[in-house]
Queue: 4 jobs
Job 1
Amino acid sequence: MCLKAGFRVAVVAAFTAFCVAGMARDAAAQNAAANLPGDFDFYVLALSWSPGFCDTIGIGRAHAQCASGAHLGFVVHGLWPQYVRGFPLDCEGIHSPSRLALDTVRGLYPDEGLARFEWRKHGTCSGKSPTDYFADVRKAREAIVIPPQFRDAGKTQNWTPLDIQRAFIAANPRLRPGMMAVECTQGEFEEVRICFSKDLHNFVACPEVSRHFCYTQQITVAPMR
């Protein structure tokens, strides 16, 4: 009787181990498929507000962007392939973009190092060459009209996150709530994230992205400097 019970326990344990191993293999296969270049649902254009970024997470590490006299406002943080839920990262492809490709986005990113990093982390998942991906970065950035209140912001302002969203919607009539997010860090305005279709012809709804909204009642918008 004890022998039979022990045998049953061994069989159950072996079956459980087999199932766990199978689930692990399935998860690994799904992860590999999830990072297939070109297989994504939409783009997110992240525009960093340099003064807020430099006051918070950029302190001491983004020297070109945060140097005194740089007078930078919105700069491209990244153009990110995105799934409806989640996003791909570090896809297979060319590891380092050429000098010619990098030259096409000069003035969009705050420095070349960020452009290189963004290509490796996100651009490789676009399914495009570095030159074509960076052309998409420029196209997305040029599709956004910056609200006048942020074009030459020379003094500290206080905004609600909702009013920042409304300012972007007023400047970009096809943009709607649910197609963007306002990001803040330590009570300061830090970034906007705007969702585009894969062909960059339209803004699109992106519930997972827009859910990560800054819900602080009031945030500081630091001046350009």
Job 2
Amino acid sequence: MALTGIQIFKLLPKTNCKECGVPTCLAFAMNLASGKAELDQCPYVSDEARSQLAEASAPPIRPVKLGAGVRAFTIGGETVLHRHEKTFYSPTGLAALVASDISDADLEKKLAGFNAFQYERVGFNLRPQMIAVKDAGKGKEAFAKVAKTIAEKSEFGVILMTEDVDVMAAGAEAAGLKRPLLYAATEANVDAMGALAKEKGLPLAVKAASVAGLITLTDKLTGMGLKDLVLDAGAREIKQSLQDNVTIRRASLKQGNRSLGFPIITFPCEMADNLAVETMIAAMHIAKYGSLVVLSDFTGESVFPLLVERLNIYTDPQRPMTQTEGIYPINNPDESSPVLVTTNFALTYFIVSGEIEGSKMPAWLLVKDSEGLSVMTAWAAGKFAGDDVGMFIKKSGIADKINHKEVIIPGFAAAIAGDMEEELPGWTVKVGPREAAHIPAFLKSR
């Protein structure tokens, strides 16, 4: 049972040192109880108090690590119901389904195709993380062989899907190096599956026919000493699945129900008969509140929009993505190459730099700190004013890299040209296009 703020306060050192970021130990205790602070922020808490406070300081939804290597990731660990309250921490994992009766050639082809789904967007590498191996009833050798191939010959993590404990044991042994997720413990096999997960030290998914059924199973498994659990309430109808996800999330965050304080796995692959509909259902689950989503396949038109949605949802809404202020050479510019200036909003930077790179024209791109605002917003907010931009250009060091004094500003900020020229005597300020898509033609026509 989670401790109250007053109970936590009694265990704190009561120094009111302010090193945790709040003025008093009582305020810190209240933040800790509500999930708005972490115990490690207090530098003076005793080991004895730390052990007593472990439950109160733990996230209401347990973080569970899956996979190993470059695609290892964590699900769970969330502390809020709505993204605008704080932020969501652990992006939804995406998995594709592979049957254990797949041929070696087909599996090799799938792995090569799946590995190609990697996209660079605003400085992030977006990619799916897991492959789910589903028992097709061909025996434990076939199941273990496919699991072993995926674990050893690809970067992907593995989900092992069978309710047969002997088959699961073979798969866990074969793919153990990738820390696979075992799916699933049910009412019929909970003792044996729990014992296997505990023996191997692996995360275990729990499947029931309802949210209430999950509570019985998770209580039993946690009583066995298992902590890394993933929940499946069993619904395969869209509306019920959404209701179950919301119920589980609310129960853990708002009611402190530790029996449901685990990440959720969902199966759009079992809710539709075509990938397009699966993708729509997956999009719903990424938003509400699937921690792991299993599709029947990966295709570019399905994976890319889901990855972008995931990026948008799991970006801190209170902190815009930004690019470091500075000078960025594109296409190997020299001293006569043009100079463009823009803001440090990450999306703006990557769109502008991408258009310049695509033009094949060498150029210098100056990125000014605008507190993560786009050009138009930054200009309206006074974060991209003429005198500030002019001062930035003077201090940037670009004058040492070029033999001319001409700078190109975004069309949306044309109004700052006069102030910039006053701040930069001898410089020519040219107004570029309003849209980044027109930059290549503009550069080629200079």
Job 3
Amino acid sequence: MKVLHVLAQLPQRTGSGVYFTNLVEGLKKYNDIEQACLYGTTKDYDINILEKKYQYEVVFESEKLPFPIAGMSDVMPYKNTIYSEMTEEMLNIWQKNFREQLEKIKEEFNPDVIITHHLWILSSIVCEIFNDKKIIGICHNTDIRQAEKHPHIKERYVTNLLRLDKILSLSDAQIEDIVKVYNYDRENIQNIGAGYSEKIFYPLTEYKKKDKVELVYAGKFDESKGFYELIKAFKVLVEKNENVTLDLIGLARDEDKERIEIATSDIKNLKIYNVASQKELADVLRTKDIFILPSYFEGLGLIAVEALGSGLRAVTTNIEGLIEFLGEKVNNSEVIEYVEMPTIYDTDKAVEEEKPAFVNRLINKLELQIERTKSSRPLPEEIFKEITKHSWKEKIETLYEIINTK
């Protein structure tokens, strides 16, 4: 059976990009499956997840496509174009380039099944071109956000999704949004969740005594991630206790660099840097103690699961998909603490007046996890076993069954 994976942006560099890559890697263990993939890229980006002849690319910032990759989030961890700011000419060029590659794939590879990521423009084109094939769409929540914020784009360019044979969601709550936003048949939506790569994200075998408790954030340096509230919370923490550090891992946009520099200039024990790959991120994570995800909007927050799988405790906002995903046993343990969000409007914006109280709640939960870490660094064995149930192995087996269902 031939399976084509489709993504409109870079593999690996975002949650959906990691999901895309892990599906390709996971399905390699089945000898009856031959794979190809299509993704957006730049001339400077290189990835080897399949043989080169099975990796089809749409190259942005090139002669044929002279603007940065369009990102499903308005803020991406790399230079990007915002869908809502694209002109009609840009959208036409974007569609033309992806359409040409899909037609080429149809002729050369002729897949039996297509797995297309994001319920958005590219998936609609996939449904048109491969209308006689089995097509599975995967919702990542950023697509729902785009559709809700920019219905005029959805109505004009996302017109064929009812042809999808099945949609996979990351949570039960997401199913309701898919039905509401896309008017898609609930019976053909399945909550598959997500998984973390246990081959990359795993804990240290031994924890040596350290003088400091080390906190870490990895993600976009953006308002919607609670990024600036985290900086404010850490400033208070480190003034009360110098034996705590914070690493901020990610890439700052040029227009945000001055604000970030001002916000962090007088804070001790804080480092800002980026990593080049999932493996590099995992290598850093497992040396830290507490992972923080103060985000105002997440479909799942898989990075928090990866951190738990790396043996860290976590402090996150009360992300509905994450709470559902981890389950009662993990949620009621001491390995993760949830912080109540401020009131959210326009999908991912926090009411300004409520941010100071949110910062205080964040500080309280961090202090709680810091004390637990000082008391006992390794996670309880029985809880870590629960976390490992969320690795990709189980998810890939479920996907394989879906692919093979008539």
Job 4
Amino acid sequence: MKPVLLEVEHLTMRFGGLIAVDDLSFAARQGEITAIIGPNGAGKTTVFNCLTGFYKPTVGRLTLHHPAGPLLLEQMEGFRIAARARVARTFQNIRLFPRMTVLENLIVAQHNVLMRASGFTLGALFGLPRYRHAEQDALERSCLWLERIGLVTRANDEAGSLPYGDQRRLEIARAMCTDPVLLCLDEPAAGLNPRESAELNQFLTGIREREKIGILLIEHDMSVVMGISDHIVVLDYGKRIASGSPGTVRRDPAVIRAYLGEPESDAVPAERT
């Protein structure tokens, strides 16, 4: 069994009288894809927002077993979660820089490394070797991901001019340029057609196999979830109602009820004529 990368323990998030996430616990493993699914309003994106520092949990511990040692994400500022803990994320709506080129979008993702190498601009101004090496590394990493998403020939085109499916893959590639240990994807298949969803499946499983990182996935497209997930956590009204392999979750009565609803057994039958 692969080592645990992320431990979520008793996560609770309240907004006034509303409980968006209610005593949630689960684990995500290194080198696996863990999906969080559930009906709209189940609390999935709130979980992501707690993990990535947009929200501070009301209650709970979020432990990332980082190569440098365990980190408590709930105690870290959002920018440190990205830079130090190396947790990257995408959003439901594409957030590329549309007027920047495809290549520039990948390079700008590496600005933290470049800024440190430049001594916060001085090294870049004087062309110091440390900065030149970091700049070359950033370019090489960007070109590598351009190849993996098949956009080498469009490197100098504006990102906003790409087809929708290409923009989705570019956004994931940009997140990967930050060298994450945990990649959080919020509905990456939203708006994709079946062919593009199948291509996304191949892309994400390729990342899992090559990079050996953990991927946390929120998704409504069950062809994606069931096709690539190693483990699935199901939420309903902020509570975990099921957890397990795709086969186990697919057959779980609680999951079926959450998605299809309870039968109205007390309904008055129609009169026969």
